[in-house]
Structures are given as C-alpha cells and as structure tokens.
Automatic annotation (TrEMBL), chain A:
Species per Swiss-Prot/TrEMBL record: Halomonas llamarensis
Superkingdom to which the source organism belongs: Bacteria
Sequence intervals crossing the membrane: 31-56
Name listed for the protein in its UniProt record: DUF2970 domain-containing protein
InterPro entries: DUF2970 (IPR021344)
Keywords assigned: Membrane, Transmembrane, Transmembrane helix
Automatic annotation (TrEMBL), chain B:
InterPro entries in the record: CcO_II, CcO_II-like_C, Copper_CuA, Cupredoxin, Cyt_c-like_dom, Cyt_c-like_dom_sf, Cyt_c_oxidase_su2, Cyt_c_oxidase_su2_TM_dom
Residues of the Cytochrome oxidase subunit II copper A binding domain: 111-248
Record-given protein name: Cytochrome c oxidase subunit 2
EC numbers: 7.1.1.9
Organism lineage string: Bacteria, Pseudomonadati, Pseudomonadota, Gammaproteobacteria, Oceanospirillales
Amino acid sequence: MWRVIKSVLAALIGVQKNQQREEDFSSDKPLAFVIAAIFVALLFVLLLIGVALLAAKV
Amino acid sequence: MRSLKHWSVVSFLVPTASYAWNMPVGVTDVSGDIYRLHMTIFWICVAIGLLVFGAMFYSLFRYRHAKGAKAAHFHENTLVEVLWTAIPVLILIAMAVPATATLKQMYNPSDADLDVMITGQQWRWRYEYMGENVAFISSLSTPQVQINGEEARGETYLLDVDNPLVLPVNRKVRFLMTSDDVIHSWWVPELAVKQDAVPGFINENWVRINEPGIYRGQCAELCGMDHGFMPVVVHAMEQEAFDKWFAERKAAAEKEISGIDRDWKLAELMERGQATYEAICASCHQPDGGGSPPAFPALAGNEQLIADQAWHLDRVLNGVSGAAMPAFRNTLNPVELAAVVTYTRNAWGNDAGDVVQPLTVQELIAQ
C-alpha cells in the first residue's frame, strides 16, 4: 500500500528510481496504481482549490 | 492611391514620444507595485540565468574533450532530480505570492469614487461619466498634413486627441470597458492599465492617479484600418480643476440638449457639421468627401445622397449592414447628426440645398 502511494507521488513530480519502476511494472495489481493515482490527483486539485480560496480571502 | 500612401506611412512609424526600454514606474500605486514586481522577478531570472549558464559554460570549458575529459555514464541520481524539481517549485511559489497580491489589487475595482464607461469604436474612444450626463468622443487630432508627411511630425505625433479623458487625482476611478464593433484595448502605460474592450462584454479596471499630468497611450488590439490612429490621452487634474472642467462639461451638455428643439440655420449647421465630419467621418470618407472606393464611397458628387435625404439619414443613423459604415444613432447626438448630414449634403459642391433640423433627427431616432 505504502509502496503504491510512494510510486504515485514520485510520478506526480516525475522523478523515480529505475529499479522501483521495474518492480512497479511487474506488479500484478495495476488497478491499485490507477485508483491511488486518481485519488492523489483529486487531492492535488482540492489542495489547489484550497490555496486559491485562501489567496482570495487574505 | 491615397489609402496606399496612408498605409505605407503607418507601417514604419514609431511614435515620437516613444516608450523606453523598460516599463515605466507610472503614476499610480498599482503601477509602482507592478514595476517593482517586474524588477524583482527580472533579477531572480538574471540570477538563475547566471547560475545555470555559468555552471554550464564552466563545465563545457573545464571538462572539454581536448583536455581528455571522459563522460560519466550513469542512469539516474534521484537526489539531484528531486532537488532540481523542488528548488524551481519553491522559487515559483515565492514569486507567485507577491504576484497574486498585486493581481488582487489590480482587479479590485470596488469603492470607486467615479465610474467612467469607455467604449471602443472604429476608430475612436467614447467616454461616459456614469450617471452624470457627461459623455464625449475622443478622436485623433494630429493634423492630416503631418500624417501625409507634408509637415514635420510633432512631439506627440499620433498621440493627440481633441477631447482627452479628464480625471481627478487621488480619487479611485473605475473603468467599465466595452466596444461597439470589434475588440479594442485601452492602454496607458503610465497608468498600468491595458484592458481589452470586447463587444457585448464589460471589463472592469481602475486607477487612482497620484500626480497631475497628461498620460498618453494607444489602442493595443489590432482593430482595423485606423488601429494606429485612435490614441488615448488622459488629463489628470487636481480635484478643483477637475470640478471646474466637469461643471463646464455638464453645462455644455445641457446647452446641447436645449439646442435640439430650436430651428438651426444652414450656416450654423455647416460649421458644426464640418467639425463633426472632420473628427468622425473623414478618416474613411476623406476630408474632401472623395472617399476611398470601393470600401468607402465618395460623398462629394454622390447623386443618390444629394437626391434622397431620407436615404442619406437612414445610412448615417442606422449604418449599412454588411459594410464598414457603422450606425451613428447612439454615437452622436441629434445636433451633431443633423449638422453632419446637412454638411455632407451641401459641402464640396454638393447642392442639395436643404437643412436637416436636430429635432427631425431626434424624432427619427425615437422611432
């Protein structure tokens, strides 16, 4: 679980170890990555909305 | 031929009162903020550029092939990659904070002391002091002989208008910008305002000018033939001088309205009409009424125009759909419309001999 999230976060900033990448791609549960990625992307959007709202208020 | 000459001058001209290399500090608090923000970010970019290119050129020189340098072959370095991602993100965030603060200020037109509606038209600006019954058109006033190259260019070549926008200093003035035809852009560098005027939309902006003075700008959105001939001039005055000017304007507007229902003489209308013609119509139909066919038909010697007053009025009031001729029913007042129609019917050898009264025009507009 933690490894999936770590990989998704690494993908978010676009930096990943090659060894880690190969391990991820040989994983037999790709769906876990997809779901985690959508979840993290949503969180990122919410974070941006929060920052924008905060900036509009200050 | 005339229009060709017109164009060749335009394409190579640089205003004499040209802008400096850098953006101006300007005369409003916001323009100063924008300038400082611009300089801060400029120096950040300079520092980053020096660092990055310095490192690059040093490496190129120090580890050059001639000295027997061998390339290191490795695939990745996660630490370095994370660093060169994180540092730019931090720099961007650090720049976004003051930039956002300035943007918020720029786009906060609330609590204005005065509202001015700015309407772009091909090719002039119209200013209306909202709720005050003061409105006028601001057209280029650079003499035609300078544009034709027959006379030396003045200091403010193509940056002069007949009726400048007059504003008080130290007052928050809100601008409401729109357009009657195509997209224009109202730009005065010293006020740090450059805002598109879009037909069918109203954009907001505002200024609080700190120093009295004359500030000049231009239309900044390509809007057709005379795009370079619709400058913006703002006179910023002390409150007292502004109040005096404003009272005069109001009185003149009232006099104008009361002038509608009296009978005007031919000579009066001709004089008034000539002024209106030269400010509004001459850019297309030419000062001598010769036009630039086929886009802009000649008015001098135009038989249909001379023979048919109703047709002539309809063209001026309602425009010509599908052609460049705009409708002037809301742009000019009845006196100006009556005068300019009378003028074009009787100038340059046109011999209609009739007089169009402002009252007639007002009734036509009301229909």
